[in-house]
Sequence to fold (275 residues):
Amino acid sequence: MTNQSDIPYTLVSIRFSHYVEKIRWVLDLNSTPFREIPLMPVAHFVVSPIYVGLSGKTDGHSTRFSTPIIKGPDGVMSKSTSIAQYLDNKHFDKASSLFKDPKAAELDMYYTNYLGPHTRRLFYYNVLNQPSEIRFLCEKNVGMSQRLLFNGFFSVMRKQIIGSLRVSEKNTKKSIDYIYQEFDKVNDLLKDGRPFILGDQFSMADISFACMGGAITLPTPEEGYGAVLPRLNGPNNTLREVSRDLRDSPAGKWALSLFANHRGKRAVHAKPNLS
Ligand SMILES: N[C@@H](CCC(=O)N[C@@H](CS)C(=O)NCC(=O)O)C(=O)O
Fold:
C-alpha cells in the first residue's frame, strides 16, 4: 500500500478522456503513484484553473484548461504530448524510453492532433444524444458530488461540447471515415508481423494509437482501460457499429492486446472504483 506522502503526482482528468488515458498509461508502466481528480467535462472549467492558473495554453483542438494536467515535483504541466515526454525523461532509463526512436514523438503528436479529435467527436455525437449513456458515464467515473450536480449541468455541458467540437451528423461521418483510414494504415503496417508500430520496441507511438484510435473499440476496465467508456452493447447505434467493426480489424485487435498486455499496473487505486 502506498503512503499518501509517497504520491508524487496529481492528475486532473476528464475521467474517460483518451488523452488522459495516455498519461495514466505512461504513469502505470512504471507503477508511478498518482492521485487522480476525476471530472466530467465542463466541471473541469472549475477545477483546471486552480492548477494551471494563467499558464495553460490552447491548441488547435482544446482549451487552456484541457485535461490531462499533472502537478508533480517540478510543477504543473498540461497537454498530453508534453506530459508524456516529461514523464519519460524523469522515470524511464535510456533502454526503456518510450521515445527512443525519434519517430515515436512525431507519431504521438500526429495521433494526438489528427486522430484524437475525430475519435472524440464520434464518442460525443453518440453519448450526448443518449442521456442514459452520459448518466451511466457520470455514475461510473466521478464521485457523488459531481453526480448530484450533473442533472443541472447536463444541458449546459451538451451545448458547450456540441458547439466547441462541432459535433454534427455531417462532421461525425467525416470523422468516421478518417478513423477508418488511420486504422487501415496500421492494418497495413502490422502485415509484416511486427509487434509494435515502430518495429520491435514498444513506444509512445503504440500508446498513442491505442488511446487516440483504439479507445473507439471501447475497452472496458477489465480489458485494461483506466476509466469507464460507453458500453459496447449500449444504445449508441453509430458508435456501437464502428466499435464492433474495428474490434474485429487487425489494428483494433492489436490495440486491445496492448491494453491487455502492456498497460502497466496502477499503484494507487482509482476512485471512484471502476467496477
Ligand atoms: N492536445 C491536448 C488535447 C487535450 C484534450 O482535448 N482534452 C479534452 C479531454 S476530453 C479536454 O479536456 N477538453 C476540454 C477542453 O479543451 O477544455 C492534449 O494532448 O492534452
Observations:
- The pocket of glutathione is lined by residues 14, 17, 19, 44, 59, 61-63, 65-68, 79-81, 112, 120 (CB under 6 Å).
